[in-house]
Amino acid sequence: MKPKLAEMLVKSIQINSLLQKRALDAYSNYHGAAQKANEKVASLADHMVDKGCVAGHQKEAASDMLQSHAGTMELLWNSVDKLSDAHSRLEKSASDLGRGVDESQAGSSANSYDSLADPYVGRRTAEKKASDEAIWAVVNNPV
To answer: DSSP assignment, residue 111?
Structure first.
């Protein structure tokens, strides 16, 4: 055998063995990550059923989705959408609180004003309010 040919053969074997080692390492890493993920599928599916994210009869379908990367991404996408909707509903309901109401909208007459029973805070009135009585009680009866 010629020395040049033998050297090329040895180089070829080295390159092939290096490529095989890289491929086996990549497969081993991928397989290990897949095993770790699959170990958590059953407990996550149970957790989803317990929290009401998935109905009991859909548990198996959720487990199947969690075992594939695309299915997991689809579940994550749906979860983000639901969280966003809930967040916007909370913001909307919080901004709806505390609107002012005119006297004409309130439905109560000025003569029957009672600050303890009135549902609107901060209404301007010439009537004596319960807070006024509390303040005057302290002023008139110093300790």
So the answer is: G
